[in-house]
From TrEMBL:
One of its GO terms (biological process) is D-xylose metabolic process. Coiled coil: none annotated. Keywords: Carbohydrate metabolism, Kinase, Transferase, Xylose metabolism. Residues 276-473 form the Carbohydrate kinase FGGY C-terminal domain. It comes from the Bacteria. This is Sugar (Pentulose or hexulose) kinase. It comes from Geodermatophilus pulveris. InterPro entries: ATPase_NBD, FGGY_C, FGGY_Carb_Kinase, FGGY_N.
Length: 554
């Protein structure tokens, strides 16, 4: 921990990271040694409006301001100092999605998040035309779907960005994006580090064929790599962060990044043959590649690290939200019995019980699909639990089935990487799913048959990761790369807890995932025949998410 933390705060020898995750907005202040000095957060939730997942821009700023105010209170309480300025600042957020603005800066259509999967026609056509997998979540898929649907706002487009890019632009006036986040908008040319020029031209021709005159290169943010300057906090930006006026303008900002990139930083997983799994509302693996893959795979995104190195991303829209919903039910039951067990205790009891469940989940089958899941070709989801009459049905086995379900789609994508011959030296895990020691970590090791490590610094997640990127931009030595900086300045002496895959668990998960794949027609039938509820704004889990879906990042 930083010595004389109050002095570091007063002198501005700090870096502030803000990350907008799917259920929490988090701010982390780090000192000269990158150790967290203070933390602030606010909760928020997506809304399901007109059959699309969205957040309002008003909620963005309300949440950011609450998180920064809570951080300032934490600084005052811990260190007896006032937060008036910081040495560096960085913003991160959920990747992908669609934020489209007109020439006057007006939002042309409600924010369409990564969770929306109504871009199937666009993703399929672009993937075929580009020869590169374009997932449903990517910004270019959202844009092309709007073109195909003849949406009126397309003709008024002036700029397109991600959530991190939007917040950064409001703080600095700079229309810029870190390369990792940009790589989830449009394919990156590995040779130039910029958007692929031939594919930009191809997109413009496809848009013209559909009746839209677009020049995509002029709409997208410029790209910056980790360590490059990306603007300074303006007076208006400082007021957006802190309406009280205590926060001084002039702070340098690093390039805004996506939560996948900050998760890589938070787990020191930016070098080839390293990877990390982040588990919150969604669950995804990032694997840094040594070489290009043999061909395109619809299960894999090809993105980059914040430094621009190639990464294969296995992104599953559905992570731990269904676990949260079941934990909420058990909490309600406990209260009905007169127990006031807090949610974290309920999670710990349920997760620990899973360790005693049948190795293959006893014939039970669960799907955690609150929303669509492109990896398994589902445009919508319905949470589902089914069992044969002769199955083993006890609490431990039930919870093991639910935990296995949260990892099963990830396993399907990781199998594609293994078939490509991709090898890993280490896999790190972070997120609420791994908070109960030795449970989620053990089951992930079984799912991917690879040792899994959990670190003690990554507990602060992507908000800490973007704070580290902000520090890197202002403190790195000339010519020093991100991987070297993390190894020598950030992660020295960091403790790791590593779990080896247990053979019985590996065999059990293999049996479960075979049932899972075989049972997918049941999930598809549920989508076809079960409606979305009684006019609610969204599934119940989005309203009650607590421990396992807490974003780490954010």
């Amino acid at each position: 921990m930083t010595t004389d933390a109050g002095g570091a705060v007063t002198a501005g020898r700090t870096a502030l990271g803000i990350e907008l995750g799917s259920t929490r907005i988090k701010a982390v202040l780090v000192g000269p040694d990158h150790a967290p000095l203070a933390v602030g957060s606010s909760d928020w939730e997506n809304q399901f409006v007109d059959r699309r997942w969205t957040y309002s821009l008003e909620a963005v700023w309300a949440g950011v301001q609450q998180a920064v105010a809570a951080l300032a209170d934490d600084v005052r309480r811990r260190h007896g100092a006032e937060l008036a300025g910081v040495g560096a600042l960085g913003v991160s957020a959920m990747m992908h999605g669609y934020l489209a603005f007109g020439a006057d800066g007006e939002l042309l259509t409600p924010f369409r998040t990564w969770r929306n999967t109504d871009t199937g026609r666009a993703a399929e056509r672009l993937s075929a035309e580009f020869g590169v997998n374009i997932p449903h979540r990517w910004s270019v898929a959202h844009l092309y779907q709007a073109v195909l649907d003849g949406e009126e706002h397309v003709g008024r487009l002036d700029s397109l960005t991600t959530l991190a890019g939007y917040v950064h632009r409001q703080l600095t006036g700079e229309h810029v994006l870190g390369v990792g986040d940009a790589s989830g908008m449009f394919p990156i040319d590995a040779a130039t580090g910029g958007y692929s020029a031939p594919l930009l031209d191809r997109f413009d021709r496809l848009a013209a064929e559909a009746g839209a005159g677009l020049a995509l290169a002029r709409l997208l943010p410029r790209i910056a790599s980790a360590g490059e300057p990306a603007g300074e906090l303006t007076e208006a930006g400082a007021r957006l962060l802190d309406p009280t006026g205590r926060l001084r303008p002039g702070t340098p900002l690093c390039p805004p990044e996506g939560d996948a990139g900050t998760g890589m930083v938070a787990t020191n997983s930016v070098a080839p043959r390293t990877g990390n799994v982040s588990a919150g509302t969604s669950i995804f693996a990032m694997v840094v590649l040594e070489r290009e893959l043999g061909r395109a795979h619809r299960e894999l995104d090809l993105v980059t690290t914040p430094a621009g190195d190639p990464v294969a991303m296995v992104h599953c829209n559905n992570g731990a939200s269904e676990l949260d919903a079941w934990a909420g039910l058990f909490t309600e039951f406990a209260r009905a019995l007169g127990s006031e067990a807090d949610p974290s205790t309920v999670f710990e009891v349920l997760f620990t019980a899973a360790l005693d469940g049948a190795a293959d989940a006893g014939g039970l089958l669960a799907y955690n699909y609150l929303s669509g899941e492109p990896i398994t070709d589902l445009e919508e989801g319905r949470p589902l639990f089914v069992r044969p009459p002769d199955s083993r049905f006890d609490l431990g086995t039930f919870m093991r089935a639910q935990l296995f379900a949260s990892l099963a789609t990830l396993r399907i994508g990781m199998d594609v990487l293994h078939a490509e011959g991709v090898q890993l030296d280490r896999m790190f895990a972070h997120g609420g799913l791994f908070r109960t020691r030795g449970v989620g970590q053990r089951f992930l090791a079984a799912a991917i048959d690879t040792p899994v490590s959990v670190g003690d610094v990554a507990a602060e997640g992507g908000a800490w990761g973007i704070a580290v990127l902000a520090a890197f931009a202002t403190r790195r030595a000339p010519g020093q790369g991100l991987a070297e900086y993390l190894d020598t300045a950030v992660f020295t002496g960091t403790g790791l807890h590593t779990v080896q895959p247990d053979p019985a668990d590996v065999a059990g998960f293999d049996a479960f995932v075979q049932r899972y794949v075989a049972g997918l027609p049941v999930e598809r039938a549920a989508v076809a025949h079960v409606g979305t509820g009684h006019g609610r704004a969204g599934p119940r889990a989005t309203e009650t998410e607590t421990t396992p879906t807490e974003e780490q990042p954010a």
